[in-house]
């Protein structure tokens, strides 16, 4: 069926940025078509060029409107389809949720560079001082926000919000590397990993990896 929202996304196994808006769409039950680009193929750049001004995914296409980059895509969905429900309703929580999202999106350079998301791979938890600091900051974001703002539900600010969609790829990666977290942070990561849509993403990532392995073996 054709829907008015189209999400251009990358591979399930590696495209952390695609997971965020995909999870928001799924969690809020917004129907959408998905255009998947295999970033490992030689023609990826050509295909990205058809859809994406930045030559990166994700891109959201809504009629003649194009939004690229996970953060503005989530904002666009929030204002156009969710009547603000993408963020916590309480102003204090909303301010903190927006700040955490900006930090997750713009910072954590060592984490993103040294531990890129690779679903289903069990990886060695090698770190350096910069990465250790960023893991500690992630832990403190998760445990402090749960403690201070987590009333009304099990997600970071109680009910599911955009910030949880941003933390999902971090949770997958922390888990893949067996990172040692405090109990509240670990509990929150495991909740994200058990989310049925995250499970669906991980299942499809596994299928994708099996297809690659099968093709290589053949
Ligand atoms: N800040 C951007 C990052 C987008 C990004 O880095 N996308 C990667 C995939 S996760 C990409 O499209 N890479 C293009 C390539 O590998 O050719 C966002 O959040 O949307």
Outline the structure in words:
The chain is an alpha+beta fold and 218 residues long. It has 2 domains: 5-84, Glutaredoxin (3-Layer(aba) Sandwich); 91-197, Glutathione S-transferase Yfyf (Class Pi), Chain A, domain 2, CATH 1.20.1050. Helices cover 57% and strands 8% of the residues. It is built from 9 helices and 4 strands. The protein has helices at 16-27, 44-51, 70-81, 91-106, 109-114, 129-149, 162-176, 183-194, 196-217; strands at 5-9, 33-36, 59-62, 65-68. A 4-stranded mixed beta sheet has the order 2-1-3-4, with helices on one face. The longest helix is centred in the C-terminal third of the chain and has 22 residues, at 196-217. The two termini are 34 Å apart. The model has no long low-confidence stretch (mean pLDDT 95). Bound molecules: glutathione.
Salient structural properties:
218 residues; alpha+beta; Glutaredoxin; Glutathione S-transferase Yfyf (Class Pi), Chain A, domain 2; 2 domains; four-stranded mixed beta sheet; 9 helices; 57% helix; 8% strand; binds glutathione
